[in-house]
Amino acid sequence: ILDNSLDILLLTETWLRETGDEGKCLDLTPAGYSMKSFPRPSHGGGIAVIYRTSLASNLSFATSLPFAHPSFEVAHVTLALCAQQKTLQIFCIYRPPPSPKNKLTDSMFLNDFHELLDLCNGINGIPVILGDTNFHFNKPTLPSVAKLVGMLDDLRFCQSVDKPTHVGGNILDWVM
Predict the structure, then answer these.
(1) Are the beta carbons of 126 and 87 closer than 8 angstroms?
(2) Nearest-angstrom CA–CA distance, 13 and 45
(3) Model-level pTM?
(4) Predicted pLDDT at 6
């Protein structure tokens, strides 16, 4: 989210560890900015937020939601925009690709994500959902993608990314 008065960068798949990567975090954070990292307890994944340090008093962070969401990682950032008297509720998610090893499925993600959409419709503020979902949004004829698109339409969410975000030509990243 960028304009003349605020700067926030949300990153997925950071692969940062809970301890031992403090130097990398410093290298990633420009002067005048701070970083909040939400590493995955195991190998890979992770989400980070880099933000202008002057915004610190307007921000709050959480990684838990009022429901289980085993199919994706989330960082919930609440940003109070005092001058505009608005609050942005930003949910940055990372969904690992389903595999036999992680036992994740599209169906699990659709159930978990539907709960997130319901939460967004009931919170105070403007919801923004972004991240890497490893869902081929550009293939609307796939049954799981069709279900997801229908869910988004029903709850009046709009995917803003309309160009490939992956070397394979797929749209895996979202901004809603």
Answers:
(1) yes
(2) 4
(3) 0.88
(4) 55
